[in-house]
Amino acid sequence: MKILITGCTGMVGSHFMGTYRNNGHEVYGIARNSSSSRMQAIQDENILRCDILERDAISRIFQEIKPHIIIHMAAQAFNGESWNSEYMTHMTNYIGTLNILYCAKNYCPDAKILLACSSAEYGNITEADCPLKEDRQLKPHTPYGISKAGTELLGRQYALNYGMKIYLPRMFIHVGTGHPPATAIQNFARQLALIKADKLPPEIHVGNLETSRDYIDVRDGVKAMMFLLERGNPGEPVNICNGEAFRIRDILHMLIDIADVDAAVVPDKKLFRPADEPLLLGDASKIKALGYSRTYSMRKTLEDVFADWESRI
Question: What is the distance between the alpha carbons of residues 32 and 52, in angstroms, rounded to a whole number?
Fold first, then answer.
């Protein structure tokens, strides 16, 4: 079976690449020329350098490969960064997805397509709204969340109008190795690794520590999304989460304990966002009904992330 994965050098995309390769499939990846090369697990695969905003180039790839499964992970994937890169976020996430769907409709309309949607689509929520169910009205209030709501609606439109098999995972925060320090957990782990190596003074710079999030290990997330592809309903959004929230302050203390260092916690104005949901907790009933169960504990995930940053520095 031919698998095509966009954003294949990213954390989630590279885990999909490795998983499908290990299962014996013919795997191709699309990555921008400027993307970082995180290719340890996928060095033998066919990596095609192309920007998803270049429809002609994407068309040639689809026409040649005609994949059976398309995993669309290419995106401006950071909620915080979307405030600084609003135009690029909307262009990449919405128009890039439109190009992928357009090419799939023309060259492989029978393919299964997984679109990376996001819990950020839920938007302006309160603790009383949680756990969030998929039928809740979407109220995104960040550029990233709005771009992902558009992504999901595009997928739904193509599924309804053209009968295409498009799957819509609403991904909660995925955590794993090889990620840039653009999220709180990765930033904390990087700082602690540098402190332990005596490359930074014993201070951890932080943003808002009072929010709580439903985190999922990337290995569990990929497993859950493969269940969705195998057993789910096209056009139906499904939360990819564990149904358990952790306060970011507790995550920080867990990482400090794992790193076994003494460090002062220093609030940094640059790390606070204009808007930040106090709680983001998903209802995992749908994905669990498809056979998903958690493998990795939060502690184990954080241990692996910290070890990864120690090796990288």
Answer: 8
